[in-house]
Amino acid sequence: MRIRGGREIRGELQGYDLHMNLVLDNAEEMVSDGENIPLGTVVLRGDNVVYISP
Amino acid sequence: MRIRGGREIRGELQGYDLHMNLVLDNAEEMVSDGENIPLGTVVLRGDNVVYISP
Amino acid sequence: MRIRGGREIRGELQGYDLHMNLVLDNAEEMVSDGENIPLGTVVLRGDNVVYISP
Amino acid sequence: MRIRGGREIRGELQGYDLHMNLVLDNAEEMVSDGENIPLGTVVLRGDNVVYISP
Amino acid sequence: MRIRGGREIRGELQGYDLHMNLVLDNAEEMVSDGENIPLGTVVLRGDNVVYISP
Amino acid sequence: MRIRGGREIRGELQGYDLHMNLVLDNAEEMVSDGENIPLGTVVLRGDNVVYISP
Amino acid sequence: MRIRGGREIRGELQGYDLHMNLVLDNAEEMVSDGENIPLGTVVLRGDNVVYISP
Q: Where is the Sm domain (chains A, B, C, D, E, F, G) (predicted)?
């Protein structure tokens, strides 16, 4: 999904709530030069989300 | 539609709610040099929306 | 009307609500070098509005 | 009055509400090189206001 | 007091409310090169305040 | 404590409320070149706080 | 965890609340050139959090 500040995070969606707070497994932060940063399980605050795509 | 940070996303509107959260099918992010990024079905957080146009 | 980020949009006001969400017909985004972008009917989120002038 | 982004708007205060939304008559946007932009009657969203001075 | 965007305003505090909206008499905007801008009585929106100091 | 915009303020915590509004005695704004600005007693709006450390 | 403005803070999570306000022990601010800044116990305001990862 795309988050504010032009960053992109990908992972397996495990849960969410009404504020679009998300729990992702095996999450990775995508870096523009192609080298991704593995993050493990993350809790992402909903107000940083721009959009969610599969 | 136009979103914050000067980006533009187009797609078929499938649903929305009171906060202007939107579900779009066959969405694409428009890039200024003419090459669009296909996103598939996206959920777009309403507080990133600037305006919606057909 | 003037919106955040220095942009200006003009159109015929068709409706509004308490959050200053606006519906505009025949809207145009004014560009500083004088070439306007026609947008048709738009829904503009109120929290992007700076001021509305006739 | 001073608004966010370093801009300044002057006019005759006609009305306001609890959110500091303001209605100004004969409003002008002050430009730093001394040439003001006349705006007529404007509705200014309160959350763009930094301060109001006479 | 210090406000967002690195600006500083000084004046005699005449009133305030729960949102830290402030009324200041004889207010001045402090400019970094030492020349202050007199503002008279101002109403300052609380959400622009960073801190208040004597 | 660290506040938004990369600034840091230190002082003796005298009080706080649910919004993390803080009252500090003998506060100082830390400047990167090592020369601190004494502020006396300050009221700091909670929404500018990033984190509080001893 | 990642916070707004590209900063990263690590520590042992001691507590949290519904707004994602966090209490961290032995917290450190990670600096890009590899030299971390020890912060001790910190209270981090939830609205600065982008995501939390282990």
A: 1-54
Sort residue A34 into left (φ over 0), alpha (ψ -120 to 50) or beta. Answer: left
Quote the minimal CA–CA distance from D47 to chain E in Å.
8
Amino acid at A11: G
B1-36 pLDDT tens trace: 777 767 889 999 998 888 889 999 999 988 777 788
Q: How confident is the model at residue A7 (pLDDT cuts 50, 70, 90)?
A: confident
Q: Please check whether residue G1 is in contact with residue G51, taking contact to mean a CB–CB distance below 8 angstroms.
A: yes
pLDDT value at C47 more than 90: no
Q: Which of G5, G42, G48 sits opposite F53 (nearest CB)?
A: G42
Do chains B and A touch, with touching meaning 3 or more CB–CB pairs less than 8 Å apart?
Answer: yes
Whose tokens are 């900063």? That residue is G7
ipTM of the complex: 0.74
Positive or negative: CA dihedral B4, B7, B10, B11: negative
* CATH label, G2-51, candidates 3.20.20.140, 2.30.30.100, 2.70.150.10, 2.130.10.10: 2.30.30.100
Using the 8-state DSSP alphabet, how is residue F47 labeled?
Answer: G
The candidate with the shortest Cα–Cα distance to C5, out of C24, C27, C32, C25, is C32
